[in-house]
Amino acid sequence: MIREITRDDFEAFWPTFSAVIKAQETYAIDPELTLEQGFQLWCKSPMKTFVFEEDGQVIGTYYLKPNSQGPSQHICNCGYMVSDQARGRGVARKMCEHSQVLATELGFKAMQFNSVVATNEVAVRLWKRLGFEIIGTLPNAYQHGKLGFVDCYVMYKWLVPWTRHD
After folding, report:
1. How confident is the model at residue 166 (pLDDT cuts 50, 70, 90)?
2. Where is the N-acetyltransferase domain (predicted)?
3. DSSP letter at 145?
4. Is 139 among the domain residues?
């Protein structure tokens, strides 16, 4: 079940969230972030934040927010996080599909991931299968916790039927 997040949900997911940012393998988030700072960043700053719940356990979460403002406000940005025990079970796929439907309902025309760590091959493959394209590479943009400096990708997907206004 995917539903909007509560404070209790985030606190229940915090051990996973904290472990992910401390590993410094996928998210450009300060590894010393406190629970309160994490709640503000993940749940309060975005437009919407959701959890993926299974058998009463929060096993994933994602946020959706505008990627830019003004003339680029039609593009949104999302971030997804899944617990270790739920990896490989389609949770990220389901959250991404949910986020794309929600994005179009909210009036967004495209979705952009600003910094997908290139060594996160599972995520890169999934996003490509869901129709995202790598539109740019940021050389040495991420200081990986184990590998040192690695590249990041900008990935993009147009979400609605294409229209051109001349």
Report:
1. very low
2. 1-160
3. T
4. yes
Residue 114 CB coordination number (10 Å): 16
In a domain, 32, yes or no: yes
- Give the domain CATH number at 13: 3.40.630.30
What's the total number of domains in the chain? 1
Looking at residue 13, its pLDDT comes to 97
CB atoms within 10 A of CB 54: 15
pTM confidence score: 0.92
- Cα separation of 16 and 19, whole Å? 5
The answer to whether residue 165 is domain-embedded is no
Q: How far apart are the first and last CA of the chain?
A: 42
CA distance to 75, 101, 105, 156, per residue, from 15 (Å): 31, 29, 32, 30
